[in-house]
Amino acid sequence: MTDPHSPNQNHLVAALPTAEFERLAPHLELVAMPLGEVLYESGGKLQHVYFPTTAIVSLQYIMENGASAEIAGVGNEGILGISLFMGGETTPSRAVVQTAGYGYRLKAHLMMQEFNRAGPMMRLLLRYTQALITQVSQTAACNRHHSVEQQLCRWLLLTLDRLPSNELTMTQELIAGMLGVRREGITEAAGHLQQTGCIRYRRGHITVLDRSGLESRVCECYAEVKKEFDRLLCDVQNRQDI
Amino acid sequence: MTDPHSPNQNHLVAALPTAEFERLAPHLELVAMPLGEVLYESGGKLQHVYFPTTAIVSLQYIMENGASAEIAGVGNEGILGISLFMGGETTPSRAVVQTAGYGYRLKAHLMMQEFNRAGPMMRLLLRYTQALITQVSQTAACNRHHSVEQQLCRWLLLTLDRLPSNELTMTQELIAGMLGVRREGITEAAGHLQQTGCIRYRRGHITVLDRSGLESRVCECYAEVKKEFDRLLCDVQNRQDI
DNA sequence: GCGGGTCTGTACGCTGGCGTACATAGCGCG
DNA sequence: CGCGCTATGTACGCCAGCGTACAGACCCGC
């Protein structure tokens, strides 16, 4: 049904009614999203919105002292650049490609045109934004109360949900940057998860061996976020004529 | 211009063009919001949205183990119940009155009617939502990286901005609950702020004596949030015919 | 196949915030 | 005016996570 490079790989695009899809499709431009690419810098103006298909992008805040913190991740379930249609024009966060892959982009003014029709596209985007708010909120609570190991599990599971395979290309250093903790903290937590057989890793590659093991160690935050995404975006599989 | 119990005390209401305001005004119902009242329980359906005038409401997540964490505060600059028009119907967070006062409420279906006109009201609400996302995001980063004292300063300043006076009615226990830290941690931080002459307190009352002192101790998060609110809602003073 | 850069493992002391426990003090209500 | 509740002060041990430092291991490219 969906070939590897169809916009329909993205759940939001796939959920559009046929009319909306056909209106937009000609303007969706396939782009490669290499690891580390910065799609939006904090405070920058948005030229495009992005619908990732295989890539995963991390939204993060950079503090004055250089420390960072991921506030949410966006994969093929979502869209990047919500502040465009929310009315902000700029984002206060930074968007960095966390897993290399592809996505489709759409020029900002075309996005706005479609949004301003106040039709299905608008409703879908607002629902997604609501889900994103949940993710950010849960991150805030999780940062306050849960251990590094629990947060690592959460992060791995959320990333896994957006990937086709069970292997992620990712150094401990990068993960530490996203979670806003020390690299050594990730080494320790990951070592522990490896001992218990949940994961295996080698230099920049992590393979998840026992997903249920991770699920038994993760804090409630993972399930809460997932539940809310499913609830808000369940009707996303509606369109069959793809 | 604005009498003590006018809906225009709320900045969002005050920013509405005359036509919108007159359409809504007859349906705005003044309600008292006593300390501790729960406006929305996590997962509950929304019957009303609220525009606080003098009250301040805290949005918080309650974890499974009973620990809590505030994700944002809402005062006379905002509205409660955004998930209604964002498409969620229910909120995953809980809304508790943090400072007693008043507000106006509007029935959910009337709010939706107005929102669905896709006019100024919708644009205003989306802008506000964008500002709220910033606040939540900054809270997430702040929870990760900053000390209890810094967070206390942030919280005091944000609360102060929403109050007419420089005295807040608030126990250390309650503040601790909002920030998701131990009560003793607040005692210590508040004691320190008192020693340096920034604040004075007695059993349930905190008076801010030296605002600039707080500002010199607070982390960047306060200024970031404030800046973004000002940027997004600056046009809120437009309507002069009040 | 070998070198160099990067990634990962380990160690050590430090400190902020936690859990627990209990003492004191202010305020409201009878 | 005094009782009792609730808010606040203080103390002690504990530990997760930090900052720093360095050693070893892996991989890629030449």
Strand composition percent of chain A: 15-25%
Widest sheet: strand ordering of chain A = 2-6-4-5
From the spread of the alpha carbons, the general shape of chain A counts as globular
Structural class of chain A: alpha+beta
Number of helices of chain A: 10
Mean pLDDT figure of chain A: 93
Low-confidence stretches of chain A: none
Rg on CA atoms of chain A, Å: 18 Å
Report the strand count of chain A: 10
Order of helices and strands of chain A: HHEEEEEHEEHHHEHHEEHH
**Largest sheet descriptor of chain A:** 4 strands, antiparallel
How many angstroms does the end-to-end distance of chain A come to? 7 Å
Helix content of chain A: 40-55%
| Quaternary structure | homodimer
Summarize the largest interface: chains and residue counts.
A-B, 41 and 41 residues
Can you put this structure into words, describing what you see?
The structure is a homodimer of 242-residue chains. In chain A, β9 and β10 (205-208) form a beta hairpin. In chain A, the strands form 3 sheets. Chain A has a 4-stranded antiparallel sheet with strand order 2-6-4-5. The longest helix of chain A is centred in the middle third of the chain and has 26 residues, at 120-145. The first copy, chain A, has 242 residues and is of the alpha+beta class. The model of chain A has no long low-confidence stretch (mean pLDDT 93). Chain A has helices spanning 11-14, 18-24, 82-86, 108-115, 120-145, 148-161, 172-179, 183-195, 211-217, 220-233, and strands at residues 29-33, 38-40, 48-52, 56-62, 68-74, 94-99, 101-107, 167-169, 199-202, 205-208. Chain A is globular, with a radius of gyration of 18 Å. In chain A, α6 (148-161) crosses α9. In chain A, 44% of the residues lie in helices and 21% in strands. Chain A binds chain B through residues 61, 63-65, 67, 69, 71, 82-83, 85-88, 92-93, 116, 118, 122-123, 126-127, 129-130, 132-134, 136-141, 143-145, 180, 220, 224, 228, 231-232, and chain B through 61, 63-65, 67, 69, 71, 82-83, 85-88, 92-93, 116, 118, 122-123, 126-127, 129-130, 132-134, 136-141, 143-145, 180, 220, 224, 228, 231-232. Chain A binds a DNA duplex (30 and 30 nucleotides) through α8.
